[in-house]
Amino acid sequence: MFIRSVKWTLSTLAIAALAVSSAWAQAAGGASGQPQWKDQGEYDVAMQAQKATDPQKKIDALKQWEQKYPSSAFKNMRTIMTAQAYDQIAMAAVGKTDPATLDASSKAAQTLLDNLDTWFASDVKPANVSDADWTKAKTTMQEQALYVLGYSAMMKKDDATAETDFKKLLAVDPNNAQVSYWLGSVIIRQHKQERYPEALYEIARSISITGTGALSPQAKDAAQKYLKAAYEGYHGDDTGLDQLMQQVQASALPPDGFHIDSVVDVQNKQFANAAEFKKAHPDIALWREIRTALTGDGAGQGDAYFQQVKGSEIPPDKDTDGNPIGMFNAKVVSAEGKNLIANVDNAGGDVTLVFEHPLNVKEIQAGTAFKFKGVVDSYTKQPYMLTLTIDDPKTEIDGLPAKAFSALPATHHTRKTVHKK
Q: What's the fold here for domain 271-421?
């Protein structure tokens, strides 16, 4: 959908560009009633801008023309050429990941947004372009600029900025399935469980869209698999997923007060008291104790507790009440390099497992349930993330394919067994 929109917008500006060439040709021939060059110098600098193939060099030539001849009879045509050149620089980011291209494209996209009203003013519109097409071209260029800004921020992992730009774009184009999917993804990457329902809504929304703005069949299939795994990871099972798919058809963004019960919500309703829960889920109960100690409000409380548990292997075989633990239950969130992010008690991810060797990430599917134990290495308080090192996947990981891990021998370290305050 987006590529078609790009072509449509550029074709509208191309019509305007034909008007530029036609007017210039007639002016050069001395046709009566046509705008005229002020002198040979203006014609020369204008030709330099027109012939430039590099968009930045074209912009430089256009600026030189404007500085020397600010009231040119061709200033509207010059404006159209300027918009085209900035659009070309902005669109260079699509599909790219290198920081230099992303930065240059973001800057160009922001320039487009800052100048939309001026560059698409009614008195700039060529006579051969209808009012409706001119307005639509302006709107679509706005969408493109926001797309580039959001995409670039997402590639640079500036998720908060990407979220803002994607939401602005969906306000203009609510049926852009790709952007809905990306919006859900960047919310998930912020690891804030309270916002996970928003992310699930957006991913479900991306799947529900049909027609011009829909995902490709392959992308939709992948999104459906991801949504099911993410929903079950957050809620515990797929109860309510069908209702969510119906609800997302109403709007691009979730309504105020939108909520999906998390596993914690479900468990709180299921168990009458903490003792019952601890007996049924000793691993999660211990995990919450550790998290509470590390994120406590007291000055230095978290750091002091961390020094006690750093280097410890967790969980122990049993908790203090004698309930067997052995390993934590978790679900895969993502894997990259030597790191695997998993969900023990936060669907966005609350543990990072660091392996000695790079993982075969193609063998690790998001949403896969598995068990683990490891050595406490570090933590962050907000958003909460506990990092554990894994020495030997064969004994410390259960439920993931052996092909996911390097066959090289592990290096074993001395471990403590402290796990409680």
A: OB fold (Dihydrolipoamide Acetyltransferase, E2P) (2.40.50)
